[in-house]
Amino acid sequence: MNIRTDILLRVYLSFGVMVIFAVAVLYKMFGLQMVEGQHWQAMADSLSTRYQTVEATRGNIFSSDGSLLATSVPEYDVRMDMVAPGILEDDVFYAKVDSLASNLAVFFKDKSVDQYRRLLRKARKDRNRYYLVKRNVSFQEMKVVRTFPIFNLGKYKGGLIAEQKNKRILPFKTLAARTIGYKNENVQPVGLEGAYANYIDGLKGSRLVQRIAGGSWMPINEDTEVAPTDGADIISTIDINMQDVAQRALEKQLIASDADNGCVILMEVATGEVRAVANFTRVDEGHYKEKFNYAIAQSSEPGSTFKLASYMAALEDGKIDTSDIVDTEDGTFRVHRHTIRDSHHGGYGKISVKRAFEVSSNTAITKLIHQNYKDNPGAFTKRLYAMHLNDPLGLQIPGEGTPLIKTPKSKSWSGLSLPQMAYGYELKVTPLQMLTLYNAVANDGKMVAPLFVKEIRRLGNTVEKFEARVINEKIVSEETLGKIKGMLEGVVEEGTARELKNSLFKMAGKTGTAQMADGAAGYKSKRRYQGSFAGYFPADNPKYSMIVVIQNPRKGGYYAIKVAAPVFKEVAERVYAADAQMYHDFNHLKYTSVNNIPTIKAGFQKDSQHVFNAFGLNTRHKEAEEDTTEELRFLVDDDIDEGRVPDLRGMGLKDAMYLLGNVGMKPFVKGKGKVVKQSVTPGETINKGLPITIELE
């Protein structure tokens, strides 16, 4: 063999070895990818685990009377592990999968039986360990789903995976919705939900999850590794009944006036606890929704309701007295080339300061403030600052509008600023800031910050309590308070709010009608007005203060007495009627008769005994007997047989409806008074949804 042949042989041999090696590599790669790919992928997945955050159940928000305003309810995504231990054998799975498909189709009604059967079989074929069966299943639905074939094999055997989520709901729908608020990612917190998120949110937990085919992550264990801690409950100051009254009255007036928007705030005088906050925005004619919290966020020129502050300042500084005479002339006052006019054409002539307040004369207050403070306007604004009208209230919920009270040092101060501020222009306050001033007058001069939350509880135990924060112990002297209270009562008795007067109780307050500026166009564009009324009741012993503000009414006039005062009157009268403590003090009353017990409606013995004890009435109760319509009749536990129609005779409507609601019957009501007749005989077997007519006399 020559040298050349030897070299070629070696080259060919080396090349052959390399080709064989390359083929072997390609063969192995093909095998790994195409033959053993799933096996190795599954192994890789099984080694990919991580901890996933589990959200805690958010705490509840309650009204002051214990009604649930916001809560979280569980909702589930239903998934299925197709190779769970209990259905690992094909004969077990295929023997029941048709029944499972049939149950799912009948129950959810979103797919046919064939569709469910086909999808479940395909998922089984794919050995899908995280197959999505249904999203957003309620707790009650989930209880039923657990009973379906295969799923009922047991906690780990049937392959059922129920992933819980928490859905936030408001049981009273739109009632106080803006005050309750919400919390969303990337959105500024709103209302109590946002302000107290640190308490409500609770502590997040974690669970170990495993990556499976398709990139999804499946929980490894049924239970979480670190359990979340549920959030604390918030006890708000909102009274659900007063809130309902306020919202209904406001919406009715907004529809009647075809106004842009409006708000109502009802506050307890002594504590500053806000009992109701209603806000509505016009979405189209006759329809309003709660979209913005005007009550706390909208700073605007209040108009004549601000005259309260101007008169208090002048009275406190000894510049005027209620009996002083002011000449309103022909209803105009020319100052710095600007004419201020009274709404009453021709003016009121010469009237007392008290009368000027009652009729809300613009010329009177601007003259009084201009004449007494023009040489030292800082003294006037200093007095306003002493009443803290320039300070935010520091509310418990976010979004408070910033007040604006000018001083002579302000850049925009002019010769016209002083008289303009005197009747509520060239300054801005929110409705709640304005109400806080009126509440201070009703509270004998003590100014307290409005309160929206009074307690935080966790598992029934108090975590934190909140009490009214005192802003100013006495905004003005006792003498000024006495005078200004008389002037506020005079507005309702003899002045611009005479339509609020009633024979049952006194109200005190002030009307305010202001022209609204339209941005850069100011007051020269199309005229729009804001009507408001702020005050308190009962005037002789104030318990509640309230403000109503309605903007841009289009129908029935724009004056405050036509648009805002009717809402104030309706809410005040309904609240007064529902709060007996305002017109009767029961604490010192005792029932004095020794021979007869008062007539009462049939009810639970324990409740009736409680009432008797409260009146110091010592009597023995007669338990329920048949046909005892003339005597006292009390319910005891034995009177309510489960599954039997209760005897409603002698009961009031509320108790009767309570019992019928509990047993699932559908009541129809005739008349009023006590129940004297019922269409279904007591003691009969109850059928859920069975109609029953009750007659009352």
Question: In this structure, how is the largest beta sheet organized?
Answer: 7 strands, mixed
Helix coverage percent of residues?
Answer: 25-40%
Indicate the structural class: alpha+beta
Terminal CA distance reads 132 Å
Cα radius of gyration in angstroms: 37 Å
Q: Based on DSSP secondary structure assignment, what is the total number of beta strands?
A: 29
Rounded mean pLDDT score: 86
Give the number of helices: 21
Which word captures the global form? extended
Low-confidence stretches: 621-632
* Residue fraction in strands: 15-25%
Protein described:
With 697 residues, the chain is an alpha+beta fold. Helices cover 33% and strands 22% of the residues. The chain contains 21 helices and 29 strands. The strands form nine sheets. Strands 2, 3, 4, 5, 8, 19 and 20 form a seven-stranded mixed sheet that branches. A six-stranded antiparallel sheet has the order 11-10-9-24-23-22, sandwiched between helices. Strands 1-6-7 form a three-stranded antiparallel sheet, with no helix packed on it. α3 (90-108) packs antiparallel against α4 (113-125) and α9 runs antiparallel to α19. It is extended, with a radius of gyration of 37 Å. The termini are far apart. Residues 621-632 have low confidence and may be disordered.
